[in-house]
Design brief:
This protein is an alpha+beta fold and 434 residues long. 28% of the residues lie in helices and 24% in strands. The protein folds into 2 domains: 218 residues, UDP-n-acetylglucosamine1-carboxyvinyl-transferase, Chain, CATH 3.65.10.10; 209 residues, Alpha-beta prism (UDP-n-acetylglucosamine1-carboxyvinyl-transferase, Chain), CATH 3.65.10.10. Strand 21, helix 11 and strand 22 form a beta-alpha-beta unit. The chain binds shikimate-3-phosphate.
Length: 434
């Protein structure tokens, strides 16, 4: 049965909140902890279905992972060559990060693996990782159209690669670097536009001799990793829904504490400020080697913009929230250069456009974006197509709709943001189960 929400309209959003740990960093902390020597203590781990799937997979591969309390894991690393194969398929659920990074990591193992995922993940393109991994010598089979299930055959002599990644994708880059740990010689990757560099930073923190700068990373294979502690900051992508909601709802004044501010993640902040949002950064500091800040957001009338294409990779997960903001802003917002949105957990251009149109928005889809004419939204029924970020973005838009909105299929919010509905209600959202 589908889990539906009844959302909005809300009064002013107020208070102080903290959102859960970063999804990208939580996945990587488990992965590197598992293949390091010694133990790694993770604080602030995201208790989402995606990141738990990664932890479950490493337990299946013979890694002991303790959970002393919620948001905490102690990973007892088995070293680069200590993983044990599993006869059962490894289930990544909805998590693209798990599947793509694991394809790289498992390509260098002395055992065979099969990676599977849910319906959405089984539609997503995997050739972008398989192709370069095959050039490194891996033997990988996918279904005819390059999707999961993925079978990774035994191959013990990967070679380093010098590879220009055709799409801006941190997942592709990370898969190659993780395979590079097991390769002979140097693995050198070049990106068309810099993407989040968590894999590089974390490899360095685990003692790998990796050299990197925005858009490029190079490492030598064969070096052992040393377990280390990881302090996971709050996920900017989860904070994003509250940044947009408080910008839209008159009278709002919300403080979101200790948000991860890696510049490869905060493109939405710049886009919202170009639209006229009133967001200030307070108490800037560092947590686990990442910049963090408290973000204070107050209601401000928003104006449509042409979203600068240079911001697209730095806000790639934030377009559902941006579409919600744009559909309620004054004037037109144009999104271009964002074709990658069509291969996320859903086709986010199509599903978000359809979801907002059902509430009266005027949106023209483009192959690589959309033209969104801002206006008012009415109550009614709409659909998230099982995409976590679309469900949350529609719930945000509903806060300023004329009447309540029923949003279908919201269960997958737990993949990245367990507790979203409760936290949102605490600061004033209208949001309840249907
Ligand atoms: C992620 C990279 C991005 C992003 C995803 C998480 C990561 O995907 O959309 O939510 O953790 O590396 P792409 O690399 O496909 O752009």
């Amino acid at each position: 049965m589908s889990l539906d929400w009844l959302a909005g309209p809300a009064g002013a959003l107020r208070g102080e909140i903290r959102v859960p740990g970063d999804k990208s960093i939580s996945h990587r902390a488990i992965m590197l902890g598992a293949i390091a020597e010694g133990s790694s203590h993770i604080h602030g781990f995201l208790e989402g279905e995606d990141t738990r799937a990664t932890a479950r997979i490493f337990a299946q591969l013979g890694v002991r992972i303790e959970q002393p309390s919620e948001h905490e894991r102690i990973v007892h690393g088995v070293g680069l060559h200590g993983l044990q194969g599993s006869d059962e398929a490894l289930d990544c659920g909805n998590a693209g990060t798990a599947m793509r990074l694991l394809t790289g990591l498992l390509a260098g193992q002395a055992f065979e693996s099969v990676l599977v995922g849910d319906e959405s993940l089984s539609r997503r393109p995997m050739r972008r990782v398989i192709e370069p991994l095959e050039r490194m010598g891996a033997r990988i089979e996918a279904s005819g159209d390059g999707t999961a299930p993925i079978r990774i055959n035994i191959k013990n002599n990967l070679q380093g690669i010098d590879y220009k990644i055709p799409v801006a994708s941190a997942q592709v880059k990370s898969a190659l670097l993780l395979a590079g740990l097991y390769a002979q010689g140097e693995t050198h990757v070049h990106e068309p536009h810099p993407t989040r560099d968590y894999t590089e930073r974390m490899l360095a923190a685990f003692g790998s001799p990796i050299a990197f700068r925005p858009g490029e990373a190079a490492m030598l294979g064969g070096f052992a990793l040393k377990g280390t502690d990881v302090d996971v900051p709050s996920d900017f992508s989860s904070a994003a829904f509250f940044l947009v909601a408080a910008s839209l709802v008159p009278g709002s004044d919300l403080l979101i504490r200790k948000v991860g501010m890696n510049p490869r993640r905060t493109g939405l902040l710049e886009a919202l400020r170009l639209m006229g949002a009133d967001i200030t950064e307070e108490a800037r500091t560092e947590q686990g080697g990442e910049p963090v800040a408290d973000l204070r957001v107050r209601y401000a009338p928003l104006q449509g913009i042409h979203v600068p294409e240079r911001l697209v990779p730095d806000m790639i997960d934030e377009f559902p929230a941006l579409f919600a903001a744009a559909s309620l802003a004054k004037g037109e917002t144009l999104v271009t250069g964002a074709a990658e949105l069509r291969v996320k957990e859903s086709d986010r251009i199509a599903v978000m456009s359809r979801g907002l149109r059902a509430l009266g928005a005027q949106i023209d889809e483009r192959p690589d974006g959309a033209l969104i004419r801002g206006g008012r939204l009415r109550g009614g029924e709409t659909e998230s197509a099982g995409d976590h970020r679309i469900a949350m973005a529609l719930a945000v838009a509903a806060q300023v709709a004329d009447a309540e909105v029923r949003i279908g299929d919201c269960a997958n919010v737990a993949t990245s943001f367990p507790g979203f509905a409760e936290l949102a209600r605490d600061c004033g959202f209208g949001l309840r189960l249907a």
